[in-house]
Predict the 3D structure of the following.
Amino acid sequence: MAAFLGLFRRDLSLALRQGGDTGLVVGFFVLAVVLFPFGVGPEPEVLQRVGAGIIWVAALLAALLSLDRLFEADYQDGELDLLALSNLPLELAVLAKCAAHWVATGLPLALTSPFLALLVDLDPRSIATLFASLLIGTPALSLIGSVAAALSLGARRQGVVLSLLVLPLYIPPLIFGAGAVEASAVGNGARAYLLILSAITLASLAFCPWASAAALRQALE
Amino acid sequence: MINWLANPARFMRLSAKAVPWCGWAAALVLAVGLFWSLVVAPPDYQQGDTVRIMYVHVPAAWMALSVYLFIAVASAVALVWRHPLAEVAARAAAPIGAAFTFVCLATGSLWGRPMWGAWWVWDARLTSVLILFFLYLGYIALANAFDDPSRGGRAAAVLALVGVVNLPIIKFSVDWWNTLHQPASIIRIGGPRIDISMLAPLLIMAVGFTLLFAVLLMLRMRTALNERRAMALRLNAGPVHAPRPAREQAVSARTAVP
């Protein structure tokens, strides 16, 4: 337990001290959402219709940006070998790193989303649902992303391979996250979407550390 | 049995004999199947002759799913038992599976245009098969993304196992969601709902596609194993030098210092 918390605190302080990572992710998120009204036109009706999807897709792409730093630095300087040899099971080490990653990137994304929802003219109930869906969904993004990051450790063109691997796996959270917001804009049914989104997050909590650890062991051979 | 097949040299001997047989069998079965589907089988009471696309679309879809399952099983065998040929088999099968998936999507699109009025709809079955196609491409990209080929093979094996969750989603998507794609008519509780006059050519085409897959897989595996041998020979040969003419070699052998 102490090792788990120690690793979590270490990763979190590294991420926060370097600072640039959180700022980069949130900055990209904001810019990507701001780009869309220039593309599809500023009419409020159109933006209301596609706003939830735009914000969710931009959140996905922003989360993607920060994934390659999840394991790469530790892989390069040998820290990952030490983690694999230590008493702490590699699955729990992955979980600690994913938790720190979520606090440094996913949580700021979720916290920024209500302000961006104002830019696309969503009504207050939809904004609340959007915030909830991102809060529930971004841990799944960190966890699923960790599997892809572990698989592509040390690859040539790691960023591209990572994107190719992770975007198909990100589609279920996207479907249910954006669907929840649209359902609440129409009037009802958001609860069902949010429950399925929670199921996806819990399932990835159970499955992804195990898959990532297996991938890391392959990388460390 | 799996251990008996692990010897690459034995595989090369067996496949050298098996490839011509499977090749001719595949050609024969596909010829019979195509003739039966395109000429003999009855037209549909609603769709007319357009239904004949089904005889290519459905077997291609079955192969797309089965080949992914094959890759997943081979990856599991490679990771758990370190079977030397399992990884070769999985990497060889991936482009074939991707091609079957593409054929399924393309023929489905061609069928959908006259039937549904759209080249593509975002219903559950089509979307999940498209994701399967991307999983195949991701597998191929990951396996080739590393300088060390064995590292690529292992990473791709883990990816194949992670993606297996998509297969039940594809199979049951037409039951779970109210989709435009036809629900299960053949592999379902209660038996096939399709008439034997259409089921027979469908199954023959499926057998033909399977034989085609077997031939292509063995050819690709043989090529991969030959490539590895060639690379090993090149590495063991040492620095490259041009072969000297025989006369010079004989002269230098006589005058060489003992």
In short: The mean pLDDT of chain A is 90. Chain A has nine helices and no strands. Chain A touches chain B at residues 147, 151-152, 154-158, 161, 164-165, 167-169, 171, 211, 214-215, 218-219, 221 (CB under 8 Å).
